[in-house]
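Progress note, sequence design subtask.
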């Protein structure tokens, strides 16, 4: 399960990084080409933190089974 979840998180982060980088001229002008990693890691970190926060909430105020229903 872990390798597939890591692949999903990576794909999500890469997709949104590509969308932001190619769709926003201001971002391309502000950041150099080798700084696109800032966008990628910001999205990746946000996704991971949000997942941990949601897991905490479900574990504290509900049951882990609620996450899959």
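Output:
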């Amino acid at each position: 399960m872990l390798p597939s979840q890591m692949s999903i998180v990576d794909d999500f982060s890469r997709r949104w990084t590509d969308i932001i980088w190619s769709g926003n001229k201001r971002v391309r002008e502000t950041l150099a080409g080798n700084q696109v990693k800032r966008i990628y890691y910001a999205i990746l970190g946000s996704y991971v933190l949000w997942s941990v926060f949601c897991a905490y909430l479900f574990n504290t105020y509900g049951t882990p089974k609620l996450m899959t229903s």
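The mean pLDDT is 89. Work on this subtask will continue into the next period as scheduled.
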